[in-house]
Amino acid sequence: MTLSPRECEVAGLVARGLTNAEIAVRLDVSVKAVEKHLSSIYKKVGFRSRTRLLLYVADRTPFGG
C-alpha cells in the first residue's frame, strides 16, 4: 500500500527524531491528527513501533535521511 503525501511527510519527520507534538507544530495540525497519520502509516506498512518506522524510512532515503 502506498503512503499519502502527508503520511510520507509525517514519516520523514519521525525519522528526523521529532516528537508527535513537534510534528504537529511543524505541520500546523493537532497532535491527534499526527497520531491518526501514524496509525494509518503503521497499518499500511505493518509496523507497530516508531523505531521500526524510523529504520524503514532511513533504508529508503538516500544517505539515511
Task: Summarize the entry for a quick read.
The chain has four helices and no strands. By secondary structure, the chain is mainly alpha-helical. The longest helix is centred in the middle third of the chain and has 15 residues, at 31-45.
Structure description:
The protein is mainly α and 65 residues long. The protein has one domain: Winged helix-like DNA-binding domain superfamily/Winged helix DNA-binding domain (Arc Repressor Mutant, subunit A), CATH 1.10.10.10. It is 69% helix and 0% strand. The protein contains four helices and no strands. It has helices at 5-15, 20-27, 31-45, 50-60. α1 crosses α3 (31-45) and α2 (20-27) crosses α3. The longest helix has 15 residues, at 31-45. The chain is globular and about 25 Å long. The protein starts with a helix and ends in a 5-residue tail after the last helix.
Annotated CATH topology: Arc Repressor Mutant, subunit A
CATH homology superfamily: Winged helix-like DNA-binding domain superfamily/Winged helix DNA-binding domain
Determine Rg (CA atoms, Å). Answer: 11 Å
Enumerate the spans where pLDDT stays under 50 for 5 or more consecutive residues: none
Amino- and carboxy-terminal Cα gap = 22 Å
What's the main sheet like?
Answer: none
The CATH architecture assignment turns out to be Orthogonal Bundle
* Helix-strand sequence: HHHH
